[in-house]
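Worked Example 4.2. Consider the chain below.
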Amino acid sequence: MNDVAKQVPTGGVTPHLTIGDGKASDAIAFYVAAFGAEERGRMLADDGSRLMHAHILINGSSVMLNDDFPEYNGGPASLPASVTLHLQVDNADAWWNRAVAAGAIIRFPLDNQFWGDRYGQVTDPFGHVWSIGAPIPA
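Applying the procedure from the previous section yields the following structure tokens:
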């Protein structure tokens, strides 16, 4: 087992994102800028260019990602895309503003919701939907 694999926690559920067009490294840079991600490690594929595996932490939770390998799975277009990644944070406005400044596209505007959270959704440049929520400030 390599050092990157040892860092992924056991138990729970860890999202694993496949990024198309060889842009997994760009996705990591975006997640650092948009969500304050911390890169824990990465491994290149044997071709020396595509990212086979990476591990980042966002808001204390693990996210794994890799470049697309269409020769194995048919590419991202063939995969279901009905997932929203939720970030429950301390300050929704701060996280929201950082994500939008980094290039996220507003999908569902940030606003106070009836269930008691300040909540909204953005789409990252790689097609993944992120929801951001925090309790409405008193």
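The longest strand covers residues 51-58. The mean pLDDT is 85. Compare this with Example 4.1 before moving on.
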